[in-house]
């Protein structure tokens, strides 16, 4: 039987996987119990699933994951309290059903802002109170930086931002802090945190928020990476930068795509992926885990955005750009949960 990944990294950080509730059963469930000591919901804890209508919380699917974690003694990462994507429209409609972003009257804009911040508070409070004894790490806000944003600070101009400025960030963290347990950690999570321009926008925002007293404990680095991008140096510099602010780092959505961006050429089926690619991927996994381990004091968790190559969101992305054809293979287990070369390189 293959040695558990989490035991290999016990001294450094916990090892997690993102899952849908149906993956808690069968072979994937067994893999979860054996190789990981942390778990995160791939979708069911996002705003659209957890509060699809105002005041109607749906905890059924999220509970399955939390119960599984409890039973198997795993940590839970909560993903995600606030995000611009997979969020229901009702958040941004005023009491008359008008889109808040279209409001031009200054007085009404002020009322809308208040209403939205109240909704942030209620959303965060209700969830945090329910899961506080199970969740160790909270993604409080996700992807609030957009390096292509028209403003000079790289702030994503989502509806949250257009209606409240950066107050939604502050209120989300403050509310989470108020209701979470003392030892829980609060994260600001984003992708491409290794890329200098985006990294610095994130750094400046976090620094400014910390100065204002916003209770941020760490940065979540999604790490949707590729065989040759970003560089190890970019990764290391980013961890170091956030550590210099006194923050923890977590790697929250790791996958190593075989493709560039946009994903071309996509191999149509798994069988068509040349073995050479898996060797390159193993070398890449070796390098990044070596880095993570060396920076073990600065990184408290490494989470894969899936378990095995039979289930990855990257397939949807590959197909989207290749007329519905394409298979990616980002993990250390193959579609039959067998060990790939990458498994051996991270276990060495
Ligand atoms: C993705 C899921 O994996 C997909 O199943 C879903 O269709 C879209 O969202 N950044 C994030 C994650 O923070 O929540 C996203 O997850 C992947 C990118």
UniProtKB/TrEMBL annotation:
Enzyme class name: hydrolase
Pathway per the UniProt entry: Glycan degradation; xylan degradation
Chemical reaction(s) catalysed: Endohydrolysis of (1->4)-beta-D-xylosidic linkages in xylans
Ranges of residues in domain GH10: 1-348
Active site, per annotation: 253
Key word Transmembrane present: no
Keyword Signal assigned: yes
EC numbers on record: 3.2.1.8
Residue ranges crossing the lipid bilayer per the database entry: none
One GO-annotated biological process of the protein: xylan catabolic process
PANTHER family: ENDO-1,4-BETA-XYLANASE A (PTHR31490:SF90), GLYCOSYL HYDROLASE (PTHR31490)
Family classification: Belongs to the glycosyl hydrolase 10 (cellulase F) family.
Protein's name in the database: Beta-xylanase
Native species: Metabacillus lacus
């Amino acid at each position: 039987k293959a040695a558990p990944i989490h035991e290999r990294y016990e001294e450094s950080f916990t090892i997690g996987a993102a899952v849908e509730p149906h993956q808690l059963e069968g072979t994937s469930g067994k893999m979860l119990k054996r190789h990981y000591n942390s778990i995160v919901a791939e979708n069911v804890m996002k705003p659209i699933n957890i509060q699809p209508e105002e005041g109607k919380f749906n905890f059924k699917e999220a509970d399955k994951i939390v119960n599984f974690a409890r039973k198997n003694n795993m940590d839970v990462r909560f993903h995600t309290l606030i995000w611009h994507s997979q969020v229901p429209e009702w958040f941004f409609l005023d009491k008359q059903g008008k889109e808040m972003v279209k409001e031009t009257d200054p007085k009404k804009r002020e009322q809308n802002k208040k209403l939205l911040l109240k909704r942030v508070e209620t959303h965060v409070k209700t969830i945090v109170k329910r899961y506080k004894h199970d969740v160790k790490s909270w993604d409080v806000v996700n992807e609030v930086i957009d390096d292509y944003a028209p403003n000079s600070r790289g702030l994503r101009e989502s509806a949250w931002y257009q209606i409240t400025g950066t107050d939604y960030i502050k209120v989300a963290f403050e509310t989470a802090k108020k209701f979470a347990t003392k030892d829980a950690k609060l994260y600001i999570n984003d992708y491409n945190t290794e890329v200098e321009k985006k990294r610095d926008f994130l750094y400046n925002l976090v620094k400014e928020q910390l100065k204002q007293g916003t209770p941020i404990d760490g940065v979540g680095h999604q790490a949707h990476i590729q065989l040759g991008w970003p560089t190890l140096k970019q990764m290391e510099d980013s961890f170091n930068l956030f550590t210099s602010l006194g923050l923890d780092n977590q790697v929250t959505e790791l996958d190593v795509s075989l493709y560039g961006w946009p994903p071309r050429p996509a191999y149509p089926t798994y069988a068509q992926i040349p073995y050479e690619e898996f060797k390159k991927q193993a070398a890449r996994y070796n390098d990044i885990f070596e880095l993570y381990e060396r920076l073990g004091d600065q990184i408290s968790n490494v989470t894969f955005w899936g378990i095995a190559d039979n289930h990855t969101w990257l397939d949807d992305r590959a197909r989207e750009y290749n007329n519905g054809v394409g298979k990616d293979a980002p993990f250390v287990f193959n579609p039959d949960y067998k060990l790939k070369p990458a498994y051996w390189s991270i276990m060495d």
